[in-house]
Amino acid sequence: MKCPRCGHELGEGNLYCEKCGEEVQYVPDFEPEIENSILDVMNDVAEQISPEGRNDSPRRDRDPIEEFEPDPEPEKAKDVVVIRKKTFFVTIAIAGLLIISCIGLICFYMFRDNSYDYQMKCASKALAASDYALAIDHYEKAFSLNRDNTEPLFEIGKVYELSQNLPKAEEIYGKIISYSNDQDAIDKLIQIYISEKKYNDINSVLMNYADEDMQLKYIDYMAKPPAFSLEEGTYEDVMELELIPSIEGSIYYTLDGSEPGSDCLLYTEPIVLRNGTYKVNAVFVNGNGICSQIVGRTYVIDTDVPDDPIVMPPDGSYSVPQLITLAVPPGVNVYYTTDDSRPTTMSAIYTDPIAIPLGDSVYHFIAVSASGTESNEIICRYTLDVDTRVSQETAIDIVAQRQFEIGRVESIDGSVPGSEGKYMYAYSELRYVQNRTLYFISEYYQEGTIRMSTGNIFAVDVYDGHLYQAVAGSNNTYTLRDF
Fold first, then answer.
1. Which of 358, 298, 370, 363 has its CA nearest to residue 331?
2. Average pLDDT of span 20-34
3. Residue 101 is inside which H or E element, if any?
């Protein structure tokens, strides 16, 4: 290589001319194709930066090899070096601008693809074009960019509804509800459940997620558990438990802790809790057959339990009239029934001995303390088989006939002189008095719809039909007078 200034042949690797001291600039070798391309760019740039009227810039028709050979004249060689420097830096600048532009474009597209608003707009365009799959894809991307906003999920649910994919719509609306109690999503989900008749699912959503307004809107599909009037716990008195529904429907319950159903006890009145432990479970069923959750309470009633009634005579078969007697301690009442049902405090109360009727009969007895605690139930079954020659109907006719014979009534039907009323007679019981088996016939006075007891009791012998008047004494005893 020669010095561009004095033309002296330079030694290999020398940075300065040994003769004149000129600094040497090395230019790397290029492939011809690359050199031609670079020269074209250099020529254009040189033309732009050369002083006006300068005619020493490289021409495009010159040989690229000659272009890079140093001018034998020092001044011209220096100009070429300057041009080469400028061209090199301009090339670097252009390459830098291209790189920056590419990076900018990449960043722009990356920013756009990661924009929530952009994804939502793309989804809307796809939906308008009925491209449901693409719309869902954009909505899913939007939700992934902002998981605090469930609007994209809501729109996905609507898309699935448009495409009649209700199971997927259910899934999406359910997902929204799990993120937040979105009432619009709840409304959408309930509408789907109604169309599919998933009534229990409706009740579950309303109970767990819906606000008061939504519950009122779908009140016919709700089944709230019944409320208990008593707090769970131990009580020293007999208690009445009420099961309270929130809306119209039915309540079924059990007292032993078992699961209630439509085949269990139907709640119609307060439940009386007497001595013992009660595990009360209850369920509410509305008009659409929707069941509430089962709710339960445990109650322990710890009171003084009265002794069981002692009944005499014991149950069995008899051939002569018998009176049932009970020993009733102070502060205790005994109630009984004759229809084979359990007595309550609304049943007949025992006050006097009870005559066992003819044929088969059954008596149920319970003792109830002043606090309302019940004893065990005592059941007695009797059969009274008496050899009678006079029937009950005949005994009643004997009494009526005798009243007419003595002039107490105007006719056999019991019409009373000077009155619109009548004397009426009815069989009351079979008694054994003064060694006689007797039908006891009670007398009533009836006028219109009013019926009153006169207090007269007549007795007819079951064997010979003899008529007596029975006069009450103390301790439910009677004496007989001929009538």
1. 370
2. 58
3. helix 74-113
Q: Three-state SS for 299? A: strand
Residues 215 and 187 sit within 8 Å (Cβ to Cβ): no
Q: What is this structure's pTM?
A: 0.42
- The C-alpha atoms of residue 58 and residue 403 are separated, in whole angstroms, by 162
Domains and CATH numbers, the chain: 32-109 (no CATH), 116-221 (1.25.40.10), 227-301 (2.60.40), 311-384 (2.60.40), 392-482 (no CATH)
Nearest to 138 by CA among 161, 148, 151: 151
**Rounded CA separation 111/261 (Å):** 60
Q: How far is Cα 110 from Cα 102, in angstroms, rounded to an integer? A: 12
pLDDT tens across 425-464, in order? Answer: 999 999 999 989 999 999 999 998 899 999 999 999 999 9
Residues β-bridged to residue 457: 442, 470
Q: Cα–Cα distance between 189 and 305 in angstroms, integer?
A: 55
CB-based contact 457:439 (threshold 8 Å) = no
Is residue 119 a contact partner of residue 139, using CB atoms and an 8 Å limit?
yes
The answer for residues whose C-beta is within 8 angstroms of residue 225's C-beta and 6 or more apart is: 282, 283, 284, 292, 293, 294, 295
Q: How many CB atoms lie within 10 A of CB 440?
A: 21
| Number of helices (H), then strands (E), in the chain | 11, 22
Structure token pair of residue 97: 């601008």
End-to-end CA distance of the chain: 172
Structure tokens at 187: 């409304």
Beta bridge partners of 468: 459, 482
Please give, one letter per residue, the 3-state secondary structure of 425-479. EEEEEEEEECCEEEEEEEEEEEECCEEEEEEEEEEEECCCCCEEEEEECHHHCEE
| Type of residue at 5 | R
- Which tokens hold the place of 208? 């767990």
3-state secondary structure of 222: coil
d(C-alpha 460, C-alpha 430), whole Å: 10
Q: Rounded to an integer, what distance in angstroms lies between the CA atom of residue 285 and that of residue 267?
A: 12
Amino acid making up residue 292: S
Half-sphere exposure of residue 180: CA atoms within 13 angstroms, side-chain side: 10
Place 94 in a pLDDT band, splitting at 50, 70 and 90: confident
Angle at 32 between CA 31 and CA 36, to 5 degrees: 120
Say what the pLDDT of residue 191 is.
92
> Across residues 65-79, what is the average pLDDT?
53
Residue whose C-alpha is closest to residue 299's, from 283, 277, 281 = 277
H or E, element range at 420: none
Taking a C-beta distance cutoff of 8 angstroms, is the pair 257, 277 a contact? no
- Whose CA is closest to 362, among 325, 406, 316, 395? 316
365 beta partners: 336, 378
